[in-house]
Design goal:
Length: 330
């Protein structure tokens, strides 16, 4: 209990308030240990978010396991068949046992601690579709409460309204809709999420570039520049150029276009005239207006081919930097 379930900031001590729970070992199954441990973790995370906090207590092993399963950065590399793989998607079917308990919207109670369990706000972890959640009152006054100066307080009486809600918890189950598909950039929940969350935790002056829209906007403008370059090359490309060059340029242009549409930045694309093979053949035989035809201007054709070859040897495509308004600078 002192090391795994309810450790304090020392990591190996436990408050004596928990010891009476162990008087009758035959009755310990009657307590909801899981909800008490989770409530303790939530409260310690809340307190550690204070900018003056220097350490943290609680069941951090639970937080570590969750982070390894859900956050790919710094995840340990699992080697050897004897080590089970970490969960990288929704929880497996084995975790569906007792779903009548973990799917409830209910307060979790551990003596002075009362914190809310809100599975409807993390539906993706359970393989459910995440909709825009209803506003939730986490009751900040509860987060200011602790045992200091209240050693003789009867917490069961003090939190009796929440204990009553806990007793009726099975009446408030969240029944999600199964959906394991990827959530698109323009999904209503993602639009709602980006509008009210802090996606970057590092100060602006520590970022590699100062772009309020982040890495996605920077890459999107770069993709748009690649799209424009490829489209221009295709338009000026003469017939003498081998067909596979045209195919490469067309594939790059189409892939960048699809990528920009997928992340919601298709407005950066401009509509270009993309002449077809037949149109270019016809234009070669059209009268140029000065009495000559395209077939007669071999010198100009050769110059165009050389220009394309010089461009095709370029190894870098310039990308305009992004200013503070998220638009490319000239």
């Amino acid at each position: 209990m002192a090391i795994v379930m309810f450790p304090d900031k020392s990591g190996n001590d436990i408050q004596v308030v928990y010891l009476p729970l162990l008087r009758d070992l035959t009755a310990i199954d009657d307590f909801s240990w899981g909800s008490a441990v989770l409530a303790t973790l939530y409260r310690n995370l809340c307190r550690s978010s204070n900018m003056k906090a220097r350490d943290i207590g609680g069941p951090l092993i639970l937080l570590q396991l969750w982070a390894w399963e859900r956050i790919t950065i710094a995840r340990p590399i699992v080697t050897g068949p004897e080590n089970p793989p970490l969960i990288q998607g929704p929880y497996p079917l084995a975790c569906n046992d007792d779903s009548g308990e973990w799917s409830v919207v209910s307060p979790m109670i551990c003596f002075d601690i009362v914190d809310w369990h809100l599975p409807n706000r993390v539906a993706r972890q359970f393989g459910w579709k995440q909709n825009i959640p209803e506003p939730a009152d986490t009751e900040p006054k509860l987060h200011k409460m602790d045992k200091r100066g209240a050693h003789s307080r009867n917490w069961a009486d003090y939190h009796s309204p929440y204990l009553a809600m806990w007793g009726r918890r099975t009446q408030f189950r969240f029944l999600g809709v199964e959906d394991n598909s990827d959530m698109g950039y323009n999904d209503p929940y993602m639009v709602w999420y980006r509008d009210r969350t802090r996606r970057f935790i590092s100060p602006t002056f520590q970022q590699a570039y100062q772009a309020p829209l982040g890495a996605t906007a920077y890459l999107a403008h770069g993709f748009a520049e690649v799209h424009r370059t490829c489209n221009t090359e295709i338009q000026v490309m003469p017939q003498e150029v081998p067909p596979h060059y045209r195919n490469i340029m067309s594939n790059i242009r189409d892939n960048t276009s699809q990528s920009l549409e997928h992340v919601g930045y298709s407005h950066l694309l401009q509509q270009f005239h993309q002449p077809t093979q037949e149109t270019q053949v016809e234009e070669q035989h059209e009268d140029r207006g000065d009495g000559s035809t395209m077939q007669e201007s071999t010198a100009e054709d050769d110059e165009t081919v050389q220009m394309f070859r010089r461009r095709s040897r370029r190894t870098n495509t310039s990308m305009s930097p992004i200013n503070e308004q998220g638009t490319p600078e000239p």
